[in-house]
Amino acid sequence: QENAKLEVSLAKVEAANKIADPLELLSPFKKFERNGLNLRIECMKVANMEKDLVDWAFQLTKANMQKLYEESDWGWKDKDKYAEMTEDRAQYLVAFDVTTGKPVAFTHFRFDMELDDEVVYCYEIQLETECRRKGLGKFLMQILELLAFKTDMTKVMLTTFKNNKVSQDFFKKTMKYEVDEISPDDPLFDDAYHYEILSKPTKKSAKPTAPDTTTATQSQPVTAS
Ligand SMILES: CC(=O)SCCNC(=O)CCNC(=O)[C@H](O)C(C)(C)COP(=O)(O)OP(=O)(O)OC[C@H]1O[C@@H](n2cnc3c(N)ncnc32)[C@H](O)[C@@H]1OP(=O)(O)O
Fold this sequence. Notes:
By secondary structure, the chain is an alpha+beta fold. It has helices at about 1-20, 50-70, 80-85, 135-150, 165-175, 215; strands at about 30-35, 35-45, 90-95, 105-115, 115-125, 155-160, 180, 195-200. It binds acetyl coenzyme *A. Acetyl coenzyme *A binds next to strand 5, helix 4, strand 6 and helix 5. This is N-alpha-acetyltransferase 40.
């Protein structure tokens, strides 16, 4: 029985990875026009990304995250992070400024197995400073949640540092993510682990709000599910 369930889960991940452009499932989410931003959102597998674009994503991640990595026991290594960001299964949602054509934000995600569960794993969400606090991070995470729903994944997962206050507030308070059951924990030492694994289950019972161009472009964030 367990094997049969695993086969089903693996088949779902494989099917999701075969979708050429997952954002085609959510066409109205290809633009973000709010709070002074006029952006086009594209979904790309890393193999189809120009090297300049991958390098931009890496440099933005480095600028935003290196200090936090160095404060943890993971440390920061350019080579390791670049390798992670360019692994075969890596897919990206990238937001481009419509006027300048420049990328301003991205999320690196994958359809993958996490233990026995089929999940959307959000490896990174990174915004240029000038695009923050305008609802864009929330919008990109809502796209991931809708993709998880559309492809029948069980949840969206991510790893974040406990001392990244911005991401703690963003994911836990705003996006309502909770500490996942597989997050490492030591009851004797609060700070034994410098990171935690958060997740949000896909609501199978509730259909996500029908995306339409009106809700996707107004100043109110779109409800994901
Ligand atoms: C899995 C990972 O990638 S973990 C690492 C996450 N990434 C980073 O830390 C990189 C640097 N930070 C960023 O790129 C961005 O700040 C993000 C992705 C964390 C948030 O994206 P934003 O577009 O700025 O968030 P958004 O505008 O959607 O904010 C929604 C709400 O989240 C909360 N929030 C967002 N940023 C902050 C902040 N700096 N401080 C406190 N609360 C915040 C607020 O409640 C906010 O609503 P409000 O602006 O109406 O008060």
